[in-house]
Amino acid sequence: MAARRAVNQSRRLPDSASIPLVSSLHPKSRNTPLLSVGLVILGAFLLVGYSYSSSGGFVSDKEAIHKGEGASCTSEVQRAIPFLKKAYGQSMCRVLHVGPDTCAVVSTLLKEDDTEAWGVEPYDLEDADSSCKRLVRKGVVRSADIKFSLPYRPKSFSVVIVSDALDYLSPKYLNKTLPDLARVSSDGLVIFAGYPGQQRAKASELAKFGKPVKLRSSSWWIRYFVQTGLQENEAATKKFEQAASKRSYKPSCQIFHLVS
């Protein structure tokens, strides 16, 4: 059936170099029907492959973030580090980052004075580079499913930063994950979430957390925080916004500061 549909589509196409090639084959040749069918099938495979590659059908969620399909909130974390230090001051001494490419964030944080950093990668680390694998061997970075409790004691870190991860969780799992992230932080929980309408939502067809990515509005997040008893860290929010304003910094992701 697929071959017949492909043939019908070719008949609707305007004149091109491909049509005379098929029609010019002599009908008396016994190989002509087989050759024609073979060309049609080959063309169909090429069209399917092209459509998948251009629409992201063969692209994983993590690859979509790497390729810039919409803004990457994990890369935004690295841009925001100077302003986070202004907002949290000495509390940025023990930081946990949760999200894809956590090795890059942790490496950036470790370059800061008087800062210790750890990371949790929600995806597998099989394709990690040598520097990332070194952090894994040292126990600085680990891979973990954030739908379940993190293997840390309460208030193990002063500040916990999460990016490009909560957008993949349904409210059912958010009800478990967000309180757990707040549990392991002592001075603040910072959430970097995508804006609705970003291209990343279209590119990520499947999520490793069981559902497609769902980018939510700020009003949705605020209502959710109220319902779950999580409060805004007003002092940190004000300091962050003041520092960002002075440097004309405009984040490409939503940033929420919550009390631990």
TrEMBL record:
TM segment ranges: 34-52
Protein's UniProt keywords contain Membrane: yes
Gene Ontology BP terms: pectin metabolic process
GO molecular function ontology, one term from the record: methyltransferase activity
Top-level taxonomic group: Eukaryota
SUPFAM superfamilies: S-adenosyl-L-methionine-dependent methyltransferases (SSF53335)
UniProt entry keywords in alphabetical sequence: Membrane, Transmembrane, Transmembrane helix
Record keyword Lyase present: no
InterPro entries named in the record: CGR2/3, SAM-dependent_MTases_sf
PANTHER family assigned: OS01G0144000 PROTEIN, S-ADENOSYL-L-METHIONINE-DEPENDENT METHYLTRANSFERASE-RELATED
Protein name: Methyltransferase type 11 domain-containing protein
